[in-house]
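Hi, here's the filled form for the chain we discussed.

Project: internal
Contact: R.S.
Residues: 394
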Amino acid sequence: MHSPVLNLSITGDFPATLDLVYFRAGGGHVAAARALQAQLAVTHPHWTVRLVDLFQVLDPDQRFLRLTGFAPEAYYNRRLATGFTVGLAAELRVLQAMIRLGHEKMVDRLARHWEQARPDLVVSLVPNFNRALGASLQALPTRTPFVTVMTDLADLPPHFWVEPGFTEHLICGTGHAVEQALSQGIPAQRVHRVQGMILAPDFHRPAVDDRAARRRQLGLDPQAPVGIVMFGGHGARAMLRIAEELDHLPLILLCGHNESLRRSLAAQRASAPRHVLGFTDGVVQWMRLADYFIGKPGPGSISEALHCGLPVVVTRNAWTMPQERWNTEWIRQTQVGVVLSAFSQVRTGVEAILTDLPRWRARAAQIDNRALCEVPGILQQVLAEDLVPQALTS
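And the returned structure, exactly as it came back:
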């Protein structure tokens, strides 16, 4: 719904090398890294922007893969695809304890990587590892500034996004995340507020297709509300239940990389038109064809949906991932969607949206997301504070 100008006013033309750190657990971190890299190519073409896979640096010989038979992210992504996410809060604390045990080795490996790569700025788009990332940069003989960009609407302290003493600059997409950072001792001048989450550049570009004509082409009534069902890049078995409950409504179902789920959904019989897709780079085009969103309360998915003017239908229960639970509170506070206790109630939730769809869509359209346009300016400011003074005195 919003189409902010992508080109920022560039006040400095100094060259710089930026490393954006990501991993593939969940998909949102790599998506944010790629989106930011693409945006910086437009706003700061004189910068060299590199993507750094954290686990490739920490485990270049893939010892974990050879020992277990799967990559570190694969276990987490498999849990998402099956929907078996109960107990992740306890597992998170176990993971964080393991990270603390391996802290010194990780710092040493990361520091050696930075010494060879020699970035001018390191940007983390991942949680849990920011103490090791910050410590590794502090161990270098020359100063390298460090920025953490939260890809969640809220932190899950302690030791999730914010690491006092190691979090140098923090970029937050909500006022709640800012308050959390300040309460953990991060100085106010080091906490930077942006509007929302980083979205792919395509979400900020005006629509070019005729929406009504495209819906007719797909066999969808331009006047009938269409739902889009999406559970991130790996889908979820809950989509089968949702499709059954909403058999009478036209749906677009995006299954991501979950080919088994795509086949199962495609085999279902429905009384209303539906389109079942696997992984696609054109999520924004499909969202713009829909009128409301159904899925898990992930920060990326709900931000994309709201940016396209779609009210959301999500759940909060024991299966909801701990870092996403506050998102449901935010949805209720802003009145941009319906929060259910289970998808067995999805028909009731959708009916609540369809009862007054124009009002729900108007509320969704009021959520202004400009993070992709705002983050480059903050990174430039951080670099100017460090890089330019060094150049003037050298």
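Let me know if anything looks off before we file it.
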